[in-house]
Write a structure and sequence with these properties.
five-stranded parallel sheet; about 325 residues; alpha/beta; 7 strands; single chain; two-stranded antiparallel sheet
Amino acid sequence: MAVFLIALSAFNYLLLTSWASGRASHSPYTANNVVTYAYNMYDVLLIFGDSHTQYAHDPDVDGFVALLARLYQRQMDVLNRGFSGYNTTGARRIVHTVLPLTSRPPSKYSPAGVYRWVSNYTMHALPGIYNRTKTIWPDRDYTFPDKPGQMRLCIIFFGTNDATIESSSQHTPLDQFADNLRYFVSLLNDPSSPHYSPTTKILFITPPPTGDRMVEEKARLWDHPITAMNNSTKKYADMVRKVANEVDAPYVDLYARIEALARRARRATPGTQANATVDFEGYDRYLIDGVHLNGLGNQLLYNMLRYSISFHWPELFPDTPPRAVAPWPAKFI
């Protein structure tokens, strides 16, 4: 047993010293008075939602997530956590895999856990080697040795699937929908939560309205039942606003904005049934199939998000957060 411990400790020492020497080659440097680190992670803007979010990484429809990623390049990582088909009840089952953990220790089977286990044996068997490795690599228990990025903003975008008719498998009762939204917020705001992150800002988006005539046409062409109706979607958009006010979080009212623009389109082009805008009540300007956003709808949401972020948290708007790496050309000292 003693021979095994000595061999294990020697392996640990060699491994840590080799990693430390590699890390030394990436020591901090100064560029234009900006100190950067090789392993510094970008801060994160996370969007948690359904197909509206998942499909929004598609550049062919000017997806709002793709546009946000372009806006925040070299400043924050924009993470798309959209799950097509999911309602808030399904999302509640997976949210713990979406939000970063802030309080749980690493698993003993993870690399950090293995190093911790080896280090514990080294500490007791050969304290001299343990102290040596601790000095040259003091943060060895972390996946990323320097300061990791923080989740600066979490955008929550649900409601379309929840609002489907009661016979649909995607339907969520309105009260349960509200409770699910509150639960998502509590995971970030409750100190007892393993995802507690009091500095993370929260922003809601109301679901877009449903274009009933577009949905009816799609159901007729594909011989599918109609599961989405605008009068139901409106109730869930109203609930998003109510919950956002309860938890003191701002919201982007996509529902109300598209409704207003669709009404304006109907007034501007009256009496022409050959005009698709009249046939589909103006919703076809912003929706592909009566449910999902098209290119113009994505651009509309993107611009609304830009305005909301800059209004509520100017420090999070692009060019306000410091860039992770100095611009080129940089004078390295």
